[in-house]
Amino acid sequence: MEKSKRLFLKQPMMRKVIYSLIPITLGAVYFFGWRTLVLMTVVTLCGILTEYLFEKRLNKPITEAVIVTSMLFTLTLPVSTPFWVAILGIVFGVMFAKEVFGGFGRNVFNPALVGRTFLYVCFPEYLTARWNLVASGFPGGFASYMTPAMDSITKATPLAALNQNADIFSIHQLFLGGVSGSSGETSALLILIAAIYLVYTKTADWQLMASPIIGFVALSSLLQLLNVPGVANPTYALFSGGFIFLSIFFVTEPITAPKTDEAKWIYGLLIGMITVAIRTFGIFVGGAAFAVLIMNTFVPIMDEGIKYMKSNKRQVAADEKV
């Protein structure tokens, strides 16, 4: 077999996702300091190395997708996450959610989301109880390595407030990014700009973006109308905890998402609804990641079920013409 001379496999679609993440990354640096970029660099190098060690024996190049995975993973972490914790998370995600399935294109679960969920369950303190102040004005976080840590975490983030059923932040703050949280999930404005770019360049499917948001708002509104205890304001809840970020970048991930239009809507709607259910009735206030991973499991059977029903419908139509 001829030895491959390429170090990286060129993937134009992945390149566009990287471009869409640049404003969000710069925003994260502005809000929390240069440590965001340092952490992302370390995570990306470790993600690339992990994939290289697996692909080297198969004489395959590293995919640009692992860079996207590393960037997304880093942006879901608080800026103060210890390097060793972040490294453990990206290695776990790439290894057990991608390489053990056979590499790029064969994974059932999103590697970045698996790595993040692994840390959320095993090292919750670093992801839920250590937050940093948000910089403001000019030059913001560009003038510091990392913004100061918060003394109190009781009301540090929108999700913390959501868990207490208190709307202590304005929608304006949540939309622009004036609240603490994971480095890349604080500004809905920057995330929506990335979404427009991804849809315009046909890199991501708008149906997969819209459906989880519709499912989330619909169930939240219904539960609020029914006066169910613990249900937050739907608009406030929508912009809290990175759900928009997840809908734009994780639900739309082409490998793990459904391929049929009908399944896309079912998939997204259920992700939104499951997120609301976990946040309202479960112990994990950050239930969006669990919702996506749960639905990832059913993607193959959903696609096959839709294809089967369409095939039966065509067969019945053909029989009626005979």
TrEMBL record:
UniProt superkingdom: Bacteria
GO cellular component: plasma membrane
Alphabetized InterPro entries for the sequence: NqrB/RnfD, RnfD_bac
Transmembrane segments: 21-50, 70-97, 174-200, 206-228, 235-253, 265-294
GO biological process: electron transport chain; transmembrane transport
Keywords, in A-Z order: Flavoprotein, FMN, Membrane, Phosphoprotein, Translocase, Transmembrane, Transmembrane helix, Transport, Ubiquinone
The keyword Transport appears for this protein: yes
Protein name: Na+-transporting NADH:ubiquinone oxidoreductase subunit B
Native source species: Natronincola peptidivorans
Residues making up the signal peptide according to the UniProt record: none
Keyword Cell inner membrane: no
Coiled coil: none
